[in-house]
Design brief:
single chain, 2 helices, 0% strand
Length: 39
């Protein structure tokens, strides 16, 4: 699991990657990556 600082940076990276997508898509994308990183 990520530390708080890493989780925040990770989330901000997700927002940048997703660009103009709605917030729910940001969250879904981040959760997908998190699931893959922590099976």
């Amino acid at each position: 699991m990520f530390s708080a600082d890493k989780a925040k940076a990770f989330y901000l990276d997700c927002l940048q990657v997703q660009g103009q997508a709605p917030l729910d898509n940001h969250l879904r994308f981040c959760q997908q990556i998190d699931d893959e990183a922590n099976p």
